[in-house]
Amino acid sequence: MKAQIKAAGYIRVSTAIQVTEGESLDTQKLQIIDFIKQKGWELTKIYSDEGLSGTKAESRPQLQQLRSDARDKQFNIIVFTKLSRFARNAREYMNLAYELEQNGVQLASVKENIDPTTQTGKMITGILALFAEWEHETIREQMYENKMIRWRSNRTFIGKPPFGYKWNKEKKELEVVPNEEAIYHEIVKMYCEQGLAMRDIAIKLNERGLKCKRAVWNSGVVSYILKNPCYYGHYVVNQFVYVDGIKGAGTKRTKIRKKESEAIIFPIRAIVTKPEWDKIQETTQFRKIIPKHTGKDTMESFLRSVLICDKCGSRMNVRIGSKRKDGSVNRYYVCYYAGTSKKSIESKRQKCDLPYIKATEIERTVWANVMSHFLMDDPEKKFGHLFDSEKNENSILNFKNSILKWEADLTSKNRERERLFNGLSREDTNTNELWEKLRKNMDEILYIEGRLKEAKNELSKFEEAQKRQKEIYEFYKKNERGFETIYNQIDKLDFPDRKLFVEAMLDGPVRVGYKYKDNKYPECPSYATTKLKIKFNPEILQRLTNEGKIKLNINSSDHHTSPDTRGSS
Ligand SMILES: [Zn+2]
C-alpha cells in the first residue's frame, strides 16, 4: 500500500466573532473533517487557537505547534476553513506557505476550495497568493465584522444617522435634532402641498444656506429623505453593501442589496405617523417622472456611469434612437451638454460639440481593453508591483558588497593575528601588551565573522526570494490557459454584471473624444476615441465567484499530479 495523504486541520476563532458569525470552533472542525473525508485523506490532528485577540502568527501557540510538527513531517497537507482563518494577510500567508512547502507540506482551504493536489488548486493558490489587495480586504472585513456585533446589540452606530437624527454616545440611541426635524416637515410641505419638484426644494434649501449633514442639497438627497421609512420609526440598517466603483470625477460606489436576514432594525423615534408617511409615498409615486426609455436598452448601455466627455469634462447620458421596423434601436452616448435638454439650456452653458457616440462602438473598445487584462500577455507588467524585483536586486547587490567588505576586513585581521603570534616568539616582546592586542584582535575577528554570517544569510534570503519571484512568473506563463477560462466566462457576463465588472476594473472614468475625418486622408472615417485606466481588481472576481457567476475552479479535466494522491485506496 502506498502512502496515504496525511492531513492536519487548523482552526482559529476569536471570542468576538465566534457566537454571532457562525464560525465557532465546532463548525470549523466539522467543515474540516468533512472536507478531508471527501478528499479521501487521513486526518492526523486538528490544531486550534481559540479566543485569541491577537491574530499575529507569533501569538498563536497552536500554529507554532503546527509549524514544528510540519518540520517533523507529521502530515502532508494542512486544511483550514478559509484563508483568513489561517493567515492574517497575504504576506503572512505567503511566508507560511513558503516555509511549509520547504517541509513538503501544502495548504488546502474549504471555503475557497483550494486543493493543492490538483492543477487548478495549485493555480488558485498562486492567484490568491498574488492578490495582495486581498490583504486590505480581509482587514476591512474583520473590522466590519467586529463592528457588526456591536451594532446588532445597538451599542454602536455605523455610518451617518439619517437627516434629523444624531447618535447620542452616552445613551446609545438616536435622538431627534429639533431644527432638522423642522426642516423635514418643511420639505414634506413643499413637496406634497406646494407641489415643488425635488430639485427646486433643494435649490430653496441651499439658498437659505442650510446644510444636509455638511453637504449641499440636491434632488437625490431630497428624494432619499422623502422615501426613507425611518421617519415613522422604522429604521432599517445594514441593507446594502458598497462595492468600490471607479474613482474620480463624479463616480460612485455601487450599492448592492444584502440578504434580507442581514438587515437590522434600529429603534428610532418617529417624527411622522405611518399614515402621514404613506401619503408622502403616494405623492412620490404619482409624481414620478417615467423616463422615455427604461429597461433593456438603457440596461444594455453598461458604460452609462463611467463615460466622461473629453471635450468639456461632463458626464455622458444614454440616448436611445427611435425604434426601427425590426424592433432594434440605435443607442448613443451623448455629452450632457451636447443636447438641447431643458437643463442644459437653463445652465446657459455653451453647447458641447462632441458628436453622438454610437454605443456599440465605444462599448466594444472599452470591453476589449478591460478584457485584455485577462490575457496573460505580460504578467510582469500587470503584477509588477507584486514582483518588485528591483528591490530584491538592490538588496542582493548591497549584501554582496558588504560581504566583500567584511571578507577583506577578516583577511586583514587574520594577517594581524599572524603578526602578533610571530611577535610572541621574539625576546624583546612585552608579553602583556601583546596578549592584550591578541585578545582585541580575536574579538574583532569574532565580530566580523558574525557580521559576515549575517550578511550571507540575508543574501541567501533575498536570492531565494528572487528565485521565488521567477517561479511565480513562470507559473503565470504556464497557467495562461486558466486565465483564458476566466476570460471566457467574464466575456459571457450579462449586462448588470458587465456594468459592475467594468466599473470595478476601471481606475477612473473613461474619457471619450472624437477624431474627425482628416482632410489629408479623406478616406479615413471619423471615429470615437477613448482614454482609460484599468486596474486589476481581484475583489470583483471574488464576488462574481461567490455569486456563482464565474467559476475559478471549473477545470473538470483536472488531472492529479501529486504522486501521493494515487495511493489513497
Ligand atoms: Zn462635452
Short description, anyone?
By secondary structure, this protein is α/β, with parallel strands linked by helices. The protein is built from 21 helices and 16 strands.
What do these coordinates show?
- It is built from 21 helices and 16 strands.
- The protein is α/β, with parallel strands linked by helices.
- The strands form six sheets. Strands 2-1-3-4 form a four-stranded parallel sheet, with helices on both faces.
- A hairpin with a 4-residue loop joins strand 5 (165-168) and strand 6 (173-176).
- Helix 9 packs across helix 10, helix 17 packs antiparallel against helix 18 and helix 20 (495-505) runs antiparallel to helix 21.
- The longest helix has 48 residues, at 431-478.
- Bound molecules: zinc ion.
- Zinc ion binds at residues 309, 311-312, 314, 335, 337-338, 352, 354.
Architecture blueprint of SSEs:
Elements: E1 6-13, H1 15-20, H2 25-39, E2 42-50, H3 61-71, E3 77-80, H4 83-86, H5 90-102, E4 106-109, H6 119-130, H7 133-152, E5 165-168, E6 173-176, H8 178-193, H9 198-207, H10 219-227, E7 235-237, E8 240-243, E9 254-257, E10 264-266, H11 274-287, H12 296-300, E11 307-309, E12 316-320, E13 331-335, H13 342-346, E14 357-358, H14 359-371, H15 379-382, H16 384-387, H17 389-424, H18 431-478, H19 480-491, H20 495-505, E15 510-515, E16 527-531, H21 538-546
Zinc ion (ZN) binds at residues 309, 311-312, 314, 335, 337-338, 352, 354.
